[in-house]
Q: What sequence folds into this?
């Protein structure tokens, strides 16, 4: 196992990986990776119109798109695809790993679950977005942890995995494990992760968050708007409404 690195003051290039399953990954789930990309030295070049003291805070970071094989691009939702840069066998130990959700009926392969366990073991931060938390659960890395996931899934997850402390929040952190609610809640989680790792007054991280209007929302959904006064649950099938589960 590689030694955990200090993310705030890395002594070498950081290895950041997006773990892709064999079926389509939800595009919004992996969108937060671009918030990390904005801190890269390659992204903020000499011509970037910001102060030099902010440019001096850029990070040497390599982003890996990791899948079981590299024989073909991996699908994303909305008809997009991404080129695999590393396979499970060639990927270097990841310092930061992120995984999003695939289709609800997708069962991860044994190799995918094994790599999730490996990535969690070697990483300093392991982040799941939306239903990606289910892959982490299947891989066995959530036992005894505090976690969250998509709000409609929380009651089911509490029954499936009572050894996990499930919280209905936009994001949760338990040590190096970060989990988020559905879709764009991953942006809330990533903003917090970046602020904690590289933020503070006068930091590049905080400047980019403000300049990019990164979301600042209540962690406990207290700012959630209701739809027609009925809340978000109105679209879920009930016991007696005749809607097939």
A:
């Amino acid at each position: 196992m590689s030694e955990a690195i200090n993310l705030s003051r890395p002594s070498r290039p950081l290895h950041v990986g997006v773990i892709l399953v064999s079926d389509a990954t939800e595009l919004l789930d992996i969108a937060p990776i671009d918030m990390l990309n904005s801190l890269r030295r390659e992204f903020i070049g000499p011509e970037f119109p910001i102060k030099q003291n902010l440019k001096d805070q850029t990070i040497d970071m390599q982003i890996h798109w990791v899948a079981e094989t590299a024989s073909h691009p991996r699908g994303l939702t909305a008809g997009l695809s991404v080129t695999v840069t590393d396979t499970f066998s060639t990927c270097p130990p990841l310092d930061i790993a992120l995984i999003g959700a695939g289709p609800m009926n997708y069962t991860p392969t044994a190799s995918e679950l094994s790599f999730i366990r490996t990535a969690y073991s070697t990483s300093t931060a392991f982040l799941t977005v939306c239903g990606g938390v289910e892959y982490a659960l299947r891989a066995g890395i959530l036992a005894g942890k505090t976690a969250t996931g998509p709000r409609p899934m929380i009651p089911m997850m509490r029954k499936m995995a009572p050894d996990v402390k499930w919280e209905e929040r936009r994001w949760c952190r338990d040590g190096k494990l970060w989990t988020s609610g559905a879709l764009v809640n991953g942006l809330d989680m990533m903003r917090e992760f970046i602020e904690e790792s590289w933020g503070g007054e006068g930091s590049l991280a905080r400047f980019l968050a403000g300049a990019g209007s990164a979301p600042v929302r209540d962690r406990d959904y207290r700012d959630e708007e209701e739809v027609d006064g009925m809340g978000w649950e109105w679209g879920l099938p009930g016991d007696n409404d005749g809607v097939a589960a």
